From TrEMBL:
Descriptive protein name: Protein-methionine-sulfoxide reductase catalytic subunit MsrP
Record key words, sorted: Metal-binding, Molybdenum, Oxidoreductase, Signal
Modified how: Predicted to be exported by the Tat system. The position of the signal peptide cleavage has not been experimentally proven.
Subunit structure: Heterodimer of a catalytic subunit (MsrP) and a heme-binding subunit (MsrQ).
Protein species of origin: Bordetella flabilis
GO terms of biological process kind: protein repair
Domain (Oxidoreductase molybdopterin-binding) ranges: 101-256
UniProt keyword annotation of Signal present: yes
Amino acid sequence: MLIRKPSDVLPSEITPERVWRSRRAWMLRAAAGTAALGMAGWGGRAAHAAAPALAPLPGTPNGQFAIMDKPTSYDDITSYNNYYEFGVDKGDPARHAAALRTRPWTVSVEGEVQKPRTFDIDALLKLAPQEDRTYRMRCVEGWSMVIPWVGYPLAALLNEVQPTANAKFVQFISVAQRDTMPGLRYPVIDWPYTEGLRLDEAMHPLALLTFGLYGKILPNQNGAPLRIVVPWKYGFKSAKSLVAIRLVEKMPVSAWMKAAPSEYGFYANVNPNVPHPRWSQATERRIGEDGLFSPKRKTLMFNGYDQVASLYAGMDLKANY
Ligand SMILES: Nc1nc2c(c(=O)[nH]1)N[C@H]1C(S)=C(S)[C@@H](COP(=O)(O)O)O[C@H]1N2
Ligand SMILES: [Mo]
């Protein structure tokens, strides 16, 4: 199928200048390389192979988080992705992520905790009851989706390891698999991909440790075998394919803060009143629903998740972008 892209947004508008320049260099090199190998060019929208059959992962619907929005199609959710370890084009993760090894897989939960522990993924899957939770997701690039995730609150895992009194922040570290991830050869960001939350944000019931979507285990391009999902923040906070979760005392510097500090702050709450330095965040395009002539949707404060507002009482959310 074709990979759809918001037709009125150029990649050069939605990617930091530095990244865009390195992406162009990468595509030129890649085009030369693939031409020599007789493969399809990277610039095109290759039809992706038939989706692999993924094991079912049923979750119990949690009515507390029900929303009226119509879920985005499985096809769109699994073929229009940001997962820079596999390439910077939206179709690259679906094209390349099949190579990711997701077993054996362990997740180390470490740092300021009383019971540090390395969990095997299959034990982690069963640590708490899996729930079905459909969340609105908003990318900082100006598009959104509605995704029926399967997972359980991150708080269940954090309570298991017991944060110490010094634990103030939680850092998330994605896998860096050199041999399966072509993107790691390019210094788009300082690999591995890392993200972070304040401890109270991480403990909020909306923060979901996520293992599946649409009732099946996560496709690799969506962050198998487990990722974090933080629906009131821009999508880049929701780090994929986690190998470590580290509790720390000081605010960690995330990979995007390091790559483009003036564009991506630690908080990254969805906030229509704080434009990205190079474009507005007031509206969004819902992938798969909005045609070329459909009006864009108004972006909602906290992506519509008002229940998190109390976490930021008294904070200047323009200074803490
Ligand atoms: N490890 C890692 N995690 C990542 C990214 C990435 O490039 N690498 N991209 C982020 C961005 S910008 C978005 S919008 C979401 C996209 O998640 P999805 O492809 O499942 O919709 O993943 C986030 N998590
Ligand atoms: Mo994003």
